[in-house]
Amino acid sequence: MANEEERTIIQMHHLQPAAGANKARTRVGRGEGSKGKTSGRGTKGTSARYQVRPGFEGGQLPLYMRLPKLRGFKNPFKTTFEVVNIAKLVEFFPAGGEVSVADLVARGLVRKNAPVKILGNGDVTVAYTLKGVKVSASAKAKIEAAGGSVEE
């Protein structure tokens, strides 16, 4: 047994990386000894700076300056009506009778919670009683000529 070499079992805490395998990263901008001052970015120019401001287009005239300034006016209190033509009214309610906003919403002609206006495109042969809707002058004339009425 004197000839046998003493065996050692390698354990996890004995392992270490090969020489030169792990290299510390270069810490730029930490004094002029190594990679200081301009930190490898050269001098001046866009690439030497951290970031350019939002909206900068490389010296081209930017979008916000190309667009017109203060053009027009948008009324925040404007009422936008859901529009239904008489032709659609005749198509969805061929028997005539009383038609309210709820009926129009149920048939999918208008969105709910929006004011409705009936326009005069089309012909009426049956009498309609319209409730809770606005009506154009031409539509009102056609509906009343067919024997109907409008209650706003």
TrEMBL record:
**Bias type Low complexity, positions:** 36-49
Which UniProt keywords are given for this protein, alphabetically ordered? Answer: Ribonucleoprotein, Ribosomal protein, RNA-binding, rRNA-binding
State the residue spans of region: Disordered.
16-52
Q: Which residues form the Large ribosomal subunit protein uL15/eL18 domain?
A: 83-151
Any Pfam family from its record, for instance, is: Ribosomal_L27A
Q: How does it assemble?
A: Part of the 50S ribosomal subunit.
Molecular function, one GO term: structural constituent of ribosome
Q: Which InterPro entries match?
A: Ribosomal_uL15, Ribosomal_uL15/eL18, Ribosomal_uL15/eL18_sf, Ribosomal_uL15_bac-type
Summarizing the function annotation, the protein's role is: Binds to the 23S rRNA.
Q: Which Gene3D superfamilies match?
A: 3.100.10.10
- What's an example Gene Ontology biological process for this entry? translation
Instruction: Name the GO cellular-component terms.
Output: cytosolic large ribosomal subunit
Query: Is-annotated flag, keyword tRNA processing?
Result: no
Family, as annotated: Belongs to the universal ribosomal protein uL15 family.
From the Swiss-Prot or TrEMBL record, give the protein name. Large ribosomal subunit protein uL15
Matches recorded under HAMAP family: Ribosomal_uL15 (MF_01341)
